[in-house]
Write a structure and sequence with these properties.
151 residues; mainly alpha; DNA polymerase, domain 1; 8 helices; 0% strand; elongated
């Protein structure tokens, strides 16, 4: 796992993603799987890791993240010829419940825009509502572009 993180993760992931994966490895995987030889890793050991982490109170989403990190590392080990199969292909990972989204009615949207009409961020909220843009898209716009849209 450390070799994968150094040789692949450090050079192919964004810094935050790399740091998050390193955290997952050190906090959740190393103590449980660290003393198992790579080519000796069994399906039941991976499943036990997921079950133990769920019993410790981790969310299903976190278990999914652990699975992704382990799966990608084992895929790389398979490509490197260090293992003959990726045991995570056989593990059933927990599926988190989908969150129900609530949307505002047209009246609620109009009332919100009336209340914030004089607010500094009014153009940002208007973009989000009418253009369907997300936070990262809006914040990625250049100032000149925002001023042009609301000139």
């Amino acid at each position: 796992m450390n070799r994968y993180m150094e040789d692949v993760g450090k050079h192919s992931l964004r810094l935050r993603s790399f740091e998050r994966r390193c955290s997952v490895v050190s906090n959740h995987m190393q103590s449980e799987l660290g003393n198992i030889k790579l080519n000796s890793l069994r399906l039941d050991q991976v499943h036990s890791l997921y079950t133990k982490k769920l019993n410790e109170g981790l969310s299903k989403r976190t278990i999914q993240h652990i699975h992704v990190v382990l799966h990608k590392a084992l895929d790389r080990a398979l490509k490197w010829g260090l293992v003959v199969r990726n045991v995570t292909d056989l593990v059933e990972k927990p599926r988190p419940k989908r969150k129900e989204f609530t949307t505002w009615s047209a009246d609620e949207v109009n009332r919100f825009l009336e209340v914030i009409a004089d607010h500094l961020w009014y153009p940002i909220y208007t973009l989000a509502i009418y253009a369907g843009m997300q936070q990262g898209e809006i914040l990625g716009l250049h100032r000149a572009g925002v001023l042009y849209l609301f000139a």
